[in-house]
């Protein structure tokens, strides 16, 4: 019997779900919090259980250095924010490549999102003045 056949047999015996997928969402979210958001989203291909897990991540980590162009980064950030479930946001890390001219409309959209989703911890690395709207965000405990 090949190792592939053995794995399939073990999967059938365990009900078809691996041990990692059987963990509660909160633990899986914690595991995914160590990844960039782009990497965490890629885990959706692992199984049906993981398919929509990323839309409820409490921590988001965007880094433009993982993208070839400013346009692809902008599109990715906008897509994630629009597809994410409407729940609170614990941690938000946003780094925009220092050689790119700051995309002010994107930053404005991100800051409105942060305020409306009650972000608690914020790490913002952009080449512009600190957005004033974030000063009024009462949920932020750490900048």
UniProtKB/TrEMBL annotation:
Coiled coil residues, start to end: none
Span of domain F-box: 17-65
Pfam families registered for this protein in UniProt: F-box (PF00646)
UniProt cross-references to InterPro entries, sorted A to Z: F-box-like_dom_sf, F-box_AtFBL13-like, F-box_dom, FBL60-like
PANTHER family linked to this entry: RNI-LIKE SUPERFAMILY PROTEIN
Record-given protein name: F-box domain-containing protein
Organism name: Hevea brasiliensis
């Amino acid at each position: 019997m090949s190792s592939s056949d053995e794995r399939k047999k073990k999967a059938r015996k365990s009900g078809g779900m691996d041990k990692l997928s059987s963990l509660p969402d909160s633990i899986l979210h914690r595991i995914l919090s160590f990844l960039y958001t782009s990497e965490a989203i890629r885990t959706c291909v692992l199984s049906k259980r993981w398919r929509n897990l990323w839309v409820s991540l409490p921590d988001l980590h965007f880094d433009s250095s993982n993208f070839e162009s400013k346009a692809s980064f902008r599109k990715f950030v906008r897509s994630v924010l629009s597809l994410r479930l409407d729940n609170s946001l614990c941690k938000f890390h946003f780094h925009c490549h220092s050689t790119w001219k700051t995309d002010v409309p994107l930053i404005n959209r991100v800051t409105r999102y942060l305020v409306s989703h009650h972000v608690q911890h914020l790490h913002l690395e952009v080449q512009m003045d600190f957005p004033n709207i974030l000063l009024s965000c009462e949920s932020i405990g750490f900048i």
